[in-house]
């Protein structure tokens, strides 16, 4: 039996640890904080519990990874299915994304007005493309490296993959032009909002297949974990420990050393020799631990720098009388013609009345996030950067007051966060979060074949393919461990199999790159 070290208890690391245990490996999991989840955690502050990032979570249907984990590992996790899933609000109107897909299409088409016919044709096309990609990305063994059986299965599915030909390498805007919808403002607003929170780029620049798949996000086992997504992360940690894994909280890894037959992990509480490592880190942070240049990591790190940080508001409020008991999720857009970042576009997650651990009875917690363009902010002096962050957070407050006034009138507590906060607590260089934007072009597909960084060392997390959500990061961790163990002696796998073998060729099911 070999030993695999996992660095970071975010969902990429948790997925890697569980897969390694399935493959018969011993696991030691290092986490610098005293709780799991990373950027998708639920943290405690002043007695309140907040989601680190405002978001919905997918992959909870019974045949999907998180749904199967809950069932097969006996996790004490309650998943709430919401309706509507999210409400999009703009100065020109609002759109509730309901669980009934046909009803949602009717609402979107009504907003689009006289362009209804073309919108319906586009939505039919989108659904076919999404079906192909969600069924492909849900099952990690369908991604490289392939076994003979998996490769043969792909050959049988070739007619379905041909649907993608006209959109691969093109932007979503080019696809819209084909349907005569490039100037359909209601549709573009909705698509920009969805793309920004999933594949981290607007519809004008988004790689079309990824964007078309991301549009299905709301109907792919998506909803709310009662108590916060950290409840799922904590339950997965318990499952890893129950199966013999070691989980070392508050034990930050300081450096990695290549050894003749593996690696030495130097952590705060001592050194340990292991056979392999799955690093749930940004590429630049892994480079720092290695202490010497790794040519494979440099272009990867540069692509991360095309992405985003986040500015946050965390609030405790008394809900309005008509709020209902369910959790709520809002997308707020202040100016429809300005870029959807820097406080212009807000995602708001509101805890439910049943989330008793989050706030006292009669109160709710709000997590409010907006994208922060770190690339443009990097050259600012500290004082100028602080002023920029303050200006963005003030704009966020104005947006809440304007577009969600019912949640603005009874605020009893507020604290804030910035990219610097994420850097300090998660250890992520400069606070980059959310992964690599899926911009139009072939580069995203080349990542399918990206191998280990070095022998016995793989990168997992939101910057590693497929990335960009709790679900996709967990799938990426599974895939990375299979790559690391390729060619290793095949040990007897455990009886539980949380991510394999549930979809027959031709069936449909999720997952595609999604945001945190």
Number of domains: 3
The rounded distance between the terminal residues' Cα atoms is 34 Å
Provide the β-strand percentage band. Answer: 15-25%
Task: Give the averaged pLDDT, no decimals.
Answer: 89
Describe the protein in words:
With about 525 residues, the chain is an alpha/beta fold. It is built from 17 helices and 19 strands. Helix 1 packs parallel to helix 10, helix 1 crosses helix 17 and helix 3 runs antiparallel to helix 4. The C terminus is likely disordered.
Salient structural properties:
single chain; 516 residues; alpha/beta; FAD/NAD(P)-binding domain; Polyamine Oxidase, Chain A, domain 2; 3 domains; seven-stranded mixed β-sheet; five-stranded parallel β-sheet; 17 helices; 34% helix; globular; disordered C terminus
Question: What can be said about this structure in brief?
Answer:
With 516 residues, the chain is of the alpha/beta class.
Lay out the secondary structure:
Blueprint: E1 3-7, H1 11-22, E2 26-31, E3 42-45, E4 48-51, H2 65-72, E5 79-80, E6 86-90, E7 93-97, H3 101-112, H4 116-138, H5 148-156, H6 158-161, H7 172-178, H8 185-198, H9 208-214, E8 224-225, H10 229-242, E9 246-249, E10 253-259, E11 262-267, E12 270-274, E13 276-280, H11 283-290, H12 298-304, E14 309-317, E15 328-333, E16 345-350, E17 364-372, H13 374-377, H14 382-403, E18 411-417, H15 419-426, H16 443-446, E19 457-460, H17 470-484
Parallel strand pairs: 1-2, 1-13, 2-9, 6-15, 13-19
Antiparallel strand pairs: 3-4, 5-8, 6-7, 10-11, 11-12, 14-17, 14-18, 15-16, 16-17
Helix pairs in contact: 1-10, 1-17, 3-4, 4-9, 7-9
């Amino acid at each position: 039996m070999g030993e695999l070290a996992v660095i970071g208890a975010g969902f990429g690391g948790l997925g890697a640890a569980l897969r390694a245990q399935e493959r018969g490996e011993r696991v030691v999991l290092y986490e610098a904080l005293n709780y799991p989840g990373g950027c998708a955690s639920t943290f405690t502050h002043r007695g309140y519990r907040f989601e680190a990032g405002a978001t919905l979570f997918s992959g909870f249907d019974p045949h999907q990874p998180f749904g199967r984990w809950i069932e097969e590992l006996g996790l004490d996790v309650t998943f709430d299915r919401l309706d509507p899933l999210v409400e999009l609000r703009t100065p020109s109107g609002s759109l509730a994304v309901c669980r009934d897909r046909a009803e949602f299409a009717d609402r979107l088409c009504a907003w689009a007005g006289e362009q209804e016919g073309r919108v319906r044709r586009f939505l039919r096309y989108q659904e076919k493309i999404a079906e192909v990609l969600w069924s492909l990305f849900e099952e990690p063994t369908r991604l490289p490296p392939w076994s003979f059986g998996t490769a043969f299965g792909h050959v049988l599915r070739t007619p379905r993959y041909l649907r993608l030909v006209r959109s691969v390498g093109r932007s979503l805007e080019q696809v819209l032009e084909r349907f005569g919808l490039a100037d359909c403002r209601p549709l573009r607003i909705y698509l920009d909002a969805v793309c920004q929170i999933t594949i981290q780029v607007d519809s004008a620049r988004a790689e079309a297949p990824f964007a078309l798949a991301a549009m299905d996000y709301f109907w792919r086992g998506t909803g709310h974990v009662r108590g916060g997504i950290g409840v799922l992360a904590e339950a997965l940690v318990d499952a890893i420990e129950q199966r013999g894994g070691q989980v070392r909280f508050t034990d930050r890894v300081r450096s990695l050393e290549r050894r003749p037959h593996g690696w030495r992990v130097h952590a705060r509480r001592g050194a340990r020799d292991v056979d392999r490592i799955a690093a749930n880190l940004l590429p630049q942070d892994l480079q720092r631990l290695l202490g010497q240049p790794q040519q494979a990591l440099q272009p990867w790190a540069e692509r991360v720098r095309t992405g985003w940080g986040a500015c946050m508001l965390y609030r405790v409020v008394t809900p309005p009388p008509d709020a209902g008991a369910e959790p709520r999720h809002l997308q707020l857009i202040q100016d429809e013609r300005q870029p959807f970042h820097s406080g212009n576009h807000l995602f708001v997650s509101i805890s439910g009345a049943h989330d008793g651990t989050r706030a006292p009875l009669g109160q709710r917690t709000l997590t409010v996030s907006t994208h922060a363009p770190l690339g443009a902010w990097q050259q600012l002096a500290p004082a100028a950067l602080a002023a920029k962050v303050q200006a963005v957070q003030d704009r966020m407050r104005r947006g809440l007051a304007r577009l969600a006034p019912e949640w603005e009138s009874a605020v009893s507590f507020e604290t804030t966060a910035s990219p610097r906060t994420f850097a300090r607590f998660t250890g992520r260089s400069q606070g980059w979060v959310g992964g690599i934007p899926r911009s139009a072009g072939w580069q995203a597909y080349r990542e399918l074949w990206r191998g280990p960084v070095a022998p016995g060392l793989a990168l997992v997390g939101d910057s590693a393919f497929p990335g960009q959500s709790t679900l996709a990061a967990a799938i990426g961790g599974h895939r990375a461990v299979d790559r690391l163990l390729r060619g290793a002696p095949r040990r007897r796998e455990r009886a539980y199999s949380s991510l394999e073998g549930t979809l027959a060729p031709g069936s449909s099911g999720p997952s595609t790159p999604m945001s945190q």
